[in-house]
Design goal:
The protein is an alpha+beta fold. Strand 9 and strand 10 form a beta hairpin.
Length: 263
């Protein structure tokens, strides 16, 4: 098995995400699959031999009084998942919400908490998967974008990279935000939504010691305490640029200048 990475492992969104592994407000039919995902994430450290920062500390969403109509939707969801995996979700009162976010400038009406939700540290987990794969014999090539595929008799016979062609019989497209661009070059219509939002990672400091917390009020913000004691903070307002702008972007552009060492 070989992995071709146009930049570095965890150099883009996989290393900068919120790291959330959540069931909150998901369709009840997905609860078993989400629980399986959490179990698999919890096993990754033992599989790879590397720390991924996996923690089950729950997630909470609080609503300002101007968003109080959302509480009815949350109550209906809590009832719909009772008896299912992640069915321990419950509503949060206005008083409890005020205690959880004492510095909020928006009056809070209440919220929803899911104690079984989890998180993992993106800057740990993505490299850990790469290192674990190498231990199992995988080959990983950074700074080596895939440009296209070769076919023989209507079947895939090779991958064309910017450093040469590699013969193979099967391919997995896992390019994240770039997947739609490569699919377009191959004549495939991959329906994905590409969104960009602001986020920041803060140095360790004394603060709330629980899982993920989001506030939907005058602004929509959220944060999660990281395993090093710092916090990742984000806002939900994002942008989805047009697909046309991506089709004109060189597939190998916007990448770091140095590869990440994978020991």
């Amino acid at each position: 098995m070989a992995l071709f990475e146009k930049g570095v492992i965890a150099g883009e969104s996989s290393g900068r995400s919120g790291g959330l592994i959540e069931a909150m407000l998901s369709d009840p039919t997905k609860m078993d699959l989400i629980e399986l995902s959490k179990q698999r994430w919890s096993e990754l450290s033992s599989i790879t031999g590397e720390d991924i920062g996996f923690l089950r500390r729950g997630s909470t969403m609080l609503f300002g009084k101007n968003k109080a109509d959302m509480l009815g939707l949350c109550e209906g969801w809590v009832e719909s998942v009772k008896g299912l995996p992640n069915g321990g979700a419950r509503m949060v009162s206005a008083a409890e919400a005020a205690r959880m976010a004492p510095g909020s400038t928006s009056p809070l009406a209440g919220g929803l908490t899911c104690p079984d939700d989890a998180s993992a540290e993106p800057v740990y987990s993505a490299p850990a998967m790469a290192i674990g794969a190498r231990k199992l014999g995988a080959k990983i090539y950074q700074f080596c974008a895939v440009r296209g595929l070769e076919r023989t008799g209507g079947r895939i016979s090779g991958v064309v990279t910017e450093k040469g062609t590699v013969k193979c019989s099967s391919v997995v497209l896992a390019g994240g935000v770039w997947s739609q661009v490569l699919a377009h070059d191959l004549g495939l219509d991959l329906r994905t939504l590409q969104c960009f939002a602001k986020g920041a990672s803060l140095h360790p400091f004394e603060g709330p010691d629980y899982g993920t917390l989001s506030i939907v009020a005058d602004h929509e913000v959220g944060w999660r305490k990281q395993s090093d004691g710092g916090y990742i903070v984000w806002e939900f307002t994002g942008i989805a640029p047009s697909f046309r702008s991506y089709c004109s972007t060189p597939f190998s552009s916007c990448r770091p200048s140095k590869p990440m060492p994978l020991h």
